[in-house]
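Hello support,

Our group uses your service weekly, and this is the first time we've seen a run hang past the timeout. The protein is GNAT family N-acetyltransferase. I'm not sure whether the cause is the sequence or the server load. Input pasted verbatim:
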Amino acid sequence: MSRSPSPVGSEAAPGDGPGVEVLMRRAEARDLPAIVAMLADDPLGARRENPDDPAPYREAFERITADPAQFLMAAERMADKAVVGTLQLTVIPGLSRRGSDRALIEAVRVHASQRGTGLGTRLVEWAIAEARRRECAMVQLTSDATREDAHRFYERLGFIPSHVGFKLPL
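Update from on-call engineer: The timeout came from a worker crash unrelated to the input. Re-ran successfully.
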């Protein structure tokens, strides 16, 4: 088992499968406006994100990129270099499961123009493959209780709704 996650380089890998042709790569600072716009482009995100105030996102981006256990991914459409998808993958070391690492998928977003093309599936499949490459014992994620379509999507990809999550705003 791997004890420390290996950092992923900035090399791009072509996304495969049906739909739009994309490069799956580490996000760069120039991608932040597109990523934040996708985070804000749904009913939940519209209430908590503010694309007009980029400073907190830049600060968070710097913290994410400085941590080798974090991978903020950008799916770049090859035709025009637009960022049309994103997710964040975090490798978490743990004592449970005999000291196994686990991967946490968060902030999966696909640009509205690309929904239904299979890009979301490709993003999550990439994250699963990366978690395997990093020798994680499992991949986990949470999804807001109101996002029933997202729940069906994750179940189709093999995720099991095995736990109930709790949050405490601070």
